[in-house]
Amino acid sequence: MKIIRVERRMLAANEEDARELRRGFQAAGVRVFNLLGAPGSGKTALLEATLRAAGPAHRMAVVEGDVATAYDAKRIAATGTPVVQIETHGACHLTAAMVRAALVKLPLDSPRVLFIENVGNLVCPSSFDLGETAKVVVVSVAEGEEKPEKYPAAFLAAEAVVISKLDLARACGCSVKRLKANALKVNPVLRVFITSAKTGQGLKPWLAYLAGDRGEAW
Amino acid sequence: MKIIRVERRMLAANEEDARELRRGFQAAGVRVFNLLGAPGSGKTALLEATLRAAGPAHRMAVVEGDVATAYDAKRIAATGTPVVQIETHGACHLTAAMVRAALVKLPLDSPRVLFIENVGNLVCPSSFDLGETAKVVVVSVAEGEEKPEKYPAAFLAAEAVVISKLDLARACGCSVKRLKANALKVNPVLRVFITSAKTGQGLKPWLAYLAGDRGEAW
User: Fold this and answer.
1) Which of B3, B139, B145, B150 to mutate to probe the A interface, most A CBs <10 Å?
2) What stretches of A78-146 show up as alpha helix (H) in DSSP?
3) What ipTM was reported for this prediction?
4) pLDDT, tens digit, for every residue of B167-211?
5) Which one, of A117, A95, A118, A130, lies nearest residue A7 by Cα?
6) Contacts with B140 from chain A: Cβ below 8 Å
7) From the first residue on, what is the mean pLDDT of each consecutive set of 10 residues in chain A (218 residues)?
8) Measuring CA to CA, how many Å separate B3 from each of A19, B79, B89, B147?
């Protein structure tokens, strides 16, 4: 079918751009995390808490992807972290070409950790490689325990899942244990982090993961 | 550009299918609501509460769209409402052709109100006409006050917005007033309903809207 062939061509073109990005990231020794999640899953709040806990010495930077507005980039900038905004003007995911164009404007030459916060969308972004070290999917306790099975692609593509807004679990009647089990049912090798950006709970193992889990000093 | 031309062709083909559906819906006198919203925004919970409050005499029916699983259709069936599931197997939105194929399997001949619960995605579904009477966007207080401006397309395409999970507003630190104002900033003619499926708050004006706001007995 013609539509499917065109989609394949789009994905193939993106793969090429992503390979080029990945080579660049690896040569520069930067760890790159592509953050996926639904709108309101808490991706930006997780980044704010992470960046504040890590501090500027760790040379983190952020590429912010949004359909519209620069609200999230402003929140990141307020933590003192170098950030560049991509406004997709309606597009439902980031592409490697968008990231490449944005990196030129990033006001930090050699970050050690680069976060790419994707458009809030639990479906489309998981198909697009951005040259990242790993995809991380963020899912909040407010979204419901069954989300991993209902949106399996993101959980399959990811190396890690961050279960966010732990502080709301009781009010939402969400069993974090079941949400975690459902994520592992879809992808048994997922690394699971359970966090609250509000209280700071669970950030320590997450920071260790970002550093490569190899005892680097944070 | 080739990609854009193909996207236009896809949308044009859908428009044709949607026109056909709309003619059928209008001839049958059924009011059809296309429910959009992020994963976990509370679309299914809103439907459960709505169907239970309205009761079977009102001849409501549901088409459930999901990327994977039939969890939501089972929840709807438990209310005693005729329901048919569309599993999109990865696709990020419903099309009019999918709805047409599903309607054949709907176990109710002449509903008065038909809900089409779209795939959980605040971006893509807003571009696809399903022949509906109106699109309704569901946004929960847990998603954050700025969502309408960050995802304007869904709020522009909709006739009404349902602000859901009112019972969580305090725990989430969400100002419902600001969320409502932000929705109206994007689309000043939106009908706004503020609801909690858990407590039943705000369902009455929502039910009146579904009935056409013309004093039909519910």
Assistant:
1) B150
2) 96-103
3) 0.91
4) 999 999 999 999 999 999 999 999 999 999 999 999 999 999 999
5) A95
6) 40, 142
7) 68 94 96 98 98 94 97 97 96 97 91 97 97 98 97 98 98 97 98 98 96 58
8) 22, 43, 22, 28
**Average pLDDT of chain B, as a whole number:** 94
User: Are the C-beta atoms of A121 and B122 separated by less than 8 Å?
Assistant: yes
> What phi and psi values does residue B76 have, to the nearest 5 degrees?
-65, -45
Tell me the Cα Rg of chain B: 17
Which stretches does DSSP call E strand in chain A?
Answer: 31-37, 60-66, 83-87, 113-117, 134-140, 160-164, 191-194
- Written as one letter, the residue type at B120 is G
Residue A157 contacts residue A134 (beta carbons within 8 Å): no
DSSP A38-53: -TTSSHHHHHHHHHHH
Please state the separation of Cα A95 from the chain's center in Å. Answer: 14
Q: What is the DSSP letter of A121?
A: B
Is residue A194 within 8 Å of A180, Cβ to Cβ? Answer: yes
Nearest CA in chain B to A87: B150
Is A152 in Cβ contact with B67 (below 8 Å)?
yes
Rounded to two decimals, the pTM is 0.94
Q: Which residues of chain A neighbour B69 with C-beta distances below 8 Å?
A: 146, 149-150
Q: In this structure, what token pair is assigned to residue A181?
A: 């089990």
pLDDT at B218 > cutoff 50: no
In our burial notation (b when 16+ CB lie closer than 10 A, e otherwise), range B161-180 reads bbbbbbbbbebbebeeeebb
| Mean pLDDT, residues B24-40 taken together | 97
Å from B39 to nearest chain A CA?
A: 6
What the block records as the tokens of A94 is 């980031």
Answer yes or no: do B142 and A39 touch at CB < 8 A. Answer: no
| pLDDT range class, residue B1, cuts 50, 70, 90 | low
* Nearest-Cα residue of chain B relative to residue A7: B3
